[in-house]
# Entry
Amino acid sequence: MDTDLKDWTNMKIALLGYGTVGRGVDKIIGERVDDVEVSRILELPDRLSDPRMTSEYEDIVSDPEIGIVVECMGGIEPAHAFIMRALEAGKHVVTSNKAVVAAHFAEFAACALEHGVSLFIEASVGGGIPWIAGIEKARRVDEVTSFSGIMNGTTNYIVYAMLKDGADFGEVLAEAQSLGYAERDPSADIDGIDVKNKTIITASVAFDVACEKDIPVSGIRNLTKADLDLFGERGLTVKLLGRGVQQDGRYAVAVEPVAVPLESLEANVPGNFNLVTLDATTVGELKFYGQGAGSLPTGNAIVQDVLDCVRGTRAPEYDFSRGLAYEPELLRASYVIRAAQAPAGSEPYAEGAWLVRDVTAADARALLDEALKTDPAAFMAALA
# Structure
């Protein structure tokens, strides 16, 4: 098919999935965009409630009038197979699926280049925040030397509510679930897996590398009100951050709770909002703030990608040919570990808490793993 979309006056697109995000995309396009039409929607056979819906993917990939496939199903399979088939069929792909992009980014990028189409992933990190486009724009001139940020609204909401209401973790988590901010199984959020996927994607774009997937990851599952009080007495609070740094042909990334100063912007991000930061050669520090999830914010990011594609204003290419080496030594900090026993090489920080100075994120995670063997409730945070 002709993949030069600038001449298309009414682009037909297909949605894969019609859940929270898919409905948001359909709503925004139907109400606010004139030159794009949602012509097909892939849905389960027992949910075909709209004449545009089909349960047969072949109806979509074989349709020459469909120029863009928007994947918002979630999960790895069949999303991975569907994206590959769309790219191979010469269709551009827009996706909000951070799990599948983190797992198969390099494969998708190579396939898109081979078939002369584009892969758009703005909505996979930061919801409605123009984070990926911001990184790409910065990289036109600069080297992105580091990034960090609150990339998960659920965990930010939990910490924010614990501080605001003086509540315990379990109580706030239950409230977040009742409000729809947290899944029934919250593991991906509170154990840092969601932020891991977003960190891998961010590092891949920012550093132009197929990011290492075996990275240090710690979450906030064991965070307590007492932990927040302990850090608060020292002018700090805890935020779950994804972080990355690169220099001299090397890079490192990690996901972990970080104790940040109470006066910092990160400490004051409310509710389920996100705040992500990059640092680059000439522009310096840039911060991006906004809703990191939800039907309309994420739908907005997808529609922005669709419009960039249709109007030819942006056509991302990712080749990951830079050859950076993954080097955990680049990401170091001092860590506070609350545990029943003192970790190796630590010194007292407070009653029941220990300070380990100047270690890598990987070594800190190893120390936490040791502590968890004897104290399943142990918790760790880096000092910013």
Notes: The chain has a mean pLDDT of 95. The chain has twelve helices and 16 strands. The CA atoms of residues 204 and 211 lie 5 Å apart. Residues 98-114 form the longest helix (17 residues).
